[in-house]
Amino acid sequence: MAAEPAPSAEVAPPWYRLTAEETMRLLGTTSQGLSPREVDERLLRYGRNELERRRGPSPLTLILRQFESPLVYVLLAAGVVTAAVGEFVDTIVILVVVVVNAAIGFTQESRAAAALEALLRMAAPTATVIRQGTHAEVPVAELVPGDIVLLSGGDKVPADLRLLEAYNLQVDESALTGESLPVPKSTHPIREANLPVADQSNMAFAGTPVMAGRGVGVVVATGAATELGRISQQVTQVEAEETPLQARLHGFSRFLGIGVLFLVAIVFGIGILVGFGLLEMFLTAVTLAVSAIPEGLPATVTIILAIGTRRMAERNAIIRRLPAVETLGTADFICTDKTGTLTRNEMTVREIHAGGRRYQVTGSGYEPNGRVTWDHAPADPEADPPLRMLLTIGVLASDARLVRRDHHRGVLGDPTEGALLVAAEKAGIGPHRLRDRHPRLAEIPFESERQLMATLNRFDEEKLILLKGAPGRVLELCSSRMVDDSRGPLDREEELQKARHLAEQGYRVLAMAFKPSQRPTLTPSDLADGFIFVGLVGIIDPPRTEAADAVESCRRAGVRVAMVTGDHKETAITIARQLGILRHGQRVLTGHELESLSDAQLEDLVEQVSVYARATPEHKLRIVERLKARGHIVAATGDGVNDAPALRAADIGVAMGVTGTDVAKETADMVLADDNFATIFAAIEEGRVVFENIRKAIFFLLSTNAGEVLTVLAALIAGLPVPLLPVQILWMNLVTDSAPVIGLGFEPGEREFLLRPPRHPKSEMLSRVLELRILLVSGLMAASTVVLFALELAQGADLDTARTMAFTTLVLFQIFNALNARSENQSVLARPFGNRILTAGLAAGVLLQLLVIYLPPIQPIMRTAPLDAAQWGLVIAVSASVLILVELEKLIRARALSPHAEGRGPE
């Protein structure tokens, strides 16, 4: 008789709520598995057990995308015009600019790998199944709902399974849930509705590794219907948004493009009306358009972002998308995962209660650096029998092993058991020697229903049953407690109160007990009663030592930090308080509570909440989206698959480089090479410096370009020949501009920026001070250059010589104006030699200008003529005036803003 067909994915019940029998019946399968015909039918119905490949943009699409800018449109139009009138040198230079900028953008976008590729790599290649009563190895892609799958330690779960059997089965679900510990699995149905993934203890989810034990499960979901597939769809559905810098530059480009066309039309019309020839005015209009367009702006921004990227890499922050560098400078909210981000992701014993004493354990992680202390002095297990017995039980009633990989010590097995081994080492007890000396004869593995693990070990001439598990369960089996070398009365309530106190502090609490045994083996009936209680152990994933300083630095810089974790509420609160994330008046929200809130209600609360516990992937995504809806620029950190949708939705996604999954790394904008939360603050610092340097570069480019435009306009109005040729303007905009601009990208920044709140993402690129300074500088440049040009012509100089004077004056104006651009407020004398790259760049600019003037092969192309000493003296004196003028303006403004000027005087 054929089995009933499996239910469709659309009507799939919450499998964790069903019994194993109900699950098997609904899926139309048995413990003997499916037949080949049933497998084929279900493959046709459900499809293969793999994630859908979505093709990214083609190379051609990426190339065309680089030309989607009004600034590029204007440049291309100028190239067409110059070619039409025979100015082919200008045409070539313009096209080189456009092609180089497109190549840079294409290279950056091509480096971004698709997150789905990483999700695909998480799938196991084969799975062990039962089909028609026979064990078989089949490709994971051929699994279907109803298949019976066998699991054992080291396997990767191949599909979403409802567990039918579980023997000490523990699965690491941290990549899905953020839970820091392997999850013990059971088979009993759970009646509670709407449980998050982290609490579905009778389920195993695709892509998660089996850490210990073995089990049997029935496939309930494959491919896109799995939890992993659902996250994959969330990642692809979240649209990437423009960064604040991109939005501002696009707006600036549109404004500039429209303004240039308007200006060119007006000048062309005025010229025709006053009697200039059509071709002459056409060439003049083209020259003016080329003057107004900062051709080097796209490349300039890219260069400065690349410099910031290199600086961040030196501080262990690897940038995957260049605009993310600047976005970090605007971030005002960080949603961070706990495990592996704020904490070490290494379980550590911190507190021990044994024999009426409370011991502290120093050190963190799996390196045995630290010690067990009592009353501020090292504890001696040889002279302290309860302590020695507790540590002995922790070693012998554990299956974990300490291993070293790539110079880093880790745990093979349950991290909690690994912490017990390290604690024993800190007390001077070697786990290997202890296990050799007291071999294990039998065991009862941990099961979630039993909540304990027991082993039978030989101790010289006797055998002991060693018990490790949940305090309440262990204490039920104890009738006395160990005091020194003897037994004493047991106060269960007192010990439970100690356990509750440890749990409230965020510890995972284990209890230890033992009793003699005469039996050769171990059965559940041996666990009835008569145990001697030894003590309690408090274990926690400790916070990183530098994370608290980083959180405080973020607070001073106006950046809020919220913890979003899959861990339990008590643990999350403990870590958040230790790190200074949870402060007075701030709230804690659990995933269950968040589920009951509408988006509007969550948006009203989101700025008050500093800790989210038991959060699911949907919760993380909702939190980021609601913060963005409130106008925040959000950085989201994470290391697991569950973080991918939030990382993609955030303005800046930050993944952990060491412990992070490939999915998180390849979805993120930035990867932390050291998994250190403190590196995020270092990146924010660099991001603010990058933005300031971009502002300095834009001020420099706009003031010099405006000076060029006003020079051409003023000469036209005065009836003079055009003082600058298009090729000379392009030379200035692309060559002599470039060296100072690159140097400005290396400015170290001013400390005051970190003490300011993050700037608003819609704030203007330039401050009012810089806008007024542009008018001041460009006006001085134009007036001085036109006067100098007119004087040279009046004194009988030929047009090429007069143009060379004007050309060189403007170049030197750029050199001196670059020194002005180093700081909005500080005098250039405050840090005269603080930027060696800029100094070298300015020297290079002068050298290049000398080559243009004096190198014979270049002179005909640039139409330059040699200058004598008197002409050079005049050019230098005139161009240096811009530095003197801005220094005076800074001094006057500083005095106007001082307490004396406001009538307050010194205290």
Q: Approximately what portion of the residues adopt beta-strand conformation?
A: 15-25%
Label the overall shape. Answer: elongated
What is the H level of CATH, i.e. the homologous superfamily of the largest domain? Answer: Calcium-transporting ATPase, transmembrane domain
Uncertain regions spanning at least 5 consecutive residues: 1-5, 111-124, 900-907
Rg? 36 Å
- How many distinct domains? 4
Q: What number is the mean pLDDT?
A: 82
Can you characterise this structure?
This protein has 907 residues and is of the alpha+beta class. The chain folds into 4 domains: 9-53 and 118-237, Calcium-transporting ATPase, cytoplasmic transduction domain A (Distorted Sandwich); 294-316 and 686-897, Calcium-transporting ATPase, transmembrane domain (Up-down Bundle); 325-343 and 545-675, Rossmann fold (3-Layer(aba) Sandwich), CATH 3.40.50; 348-540, Calcium-transporting ATPase, cytoplasmic domain N (3-Layer(aba) Sandwich), CATH 3.40.1110.10. Helices cover 47% and strands 18% of the residues. The chain contains 33 helices and 28 strands. The strands form 4 sheets. Strands 10, 11, 12, 13, 16, 17, 18, 19, 20, 21 and 22 form an 11-stranded mixed sheet that branches. Strands 8-28-27-26-9-23-25-24 form an 8-stranded mixed sheet, with helices on both faces. Strand 14 (401-405) and strand 15 (408-412) form a beta hairpin. Helix 4 runs antiparallel to helix 5 (88-110). The protein is elongated, with a radius of gyration of 36 Å.
